[in-house]
Amino acid sequence: MTRNFNVSNSHQMKWIFSLTLACLLGQGCYSQNNQKTDMDQHKKNDNPVYSRTDTGKAVMKDEDWKRVLSPEVYYIARQKGTERPWSSKFENLKEVGTYYCAACGNALFKSDTKFESGCGWPSFYEPISKSSVIYLPDNSLGMSRTEVECGRCKAHLGHVFEDGPPPTGLRYCINGVVLDFEKAKEAEKHYTEKKKSE
Ligand SMILES: [Zn+2]
Hints:
Mss4-like_sf; metal-binding; Met_Sox_Rdtase_MsrB; EC 1.8.4.12
């Protein structure tokens, strides 16, 4: 009797042990995965909508934008300000990579569509995709212009003019303050790291 009891007890113990181990492992994997999903390499402190991967609309109250953006970015992105010409570090940048919205992380322009326009602001002839930017008529300052906003968070980016180079003939004149740039090599590294973690 005693022997039988011991055998069954030991089986039971083994079973409980395996179950606990499975739970622990499962839980471990779960939280690790969670961490990796949230691990947006470019996430900005306190900005809950900043993401290079989320394509959903980024909507926040003005007071929240003011809290999470630097005063320079807030002034241009949310108050439609304009930076001084020739003041952007991106104006003459020739590195290969991608330009993102500094307010929400949305991919906006690729470096191969950037050109030297001589206008004093970073200039591109084409956005990354049709939905990466939106267009609004702007009749302020006695001029008839087309305003360009971020397609995800509606940050004011700049204006588009019809005097650009081929193939589009467009010139997207963009405030460098509202752009984040990532070199292609860095992007590739982050992509590989992300793939490994999946
Ligand atoms: Zn944006």
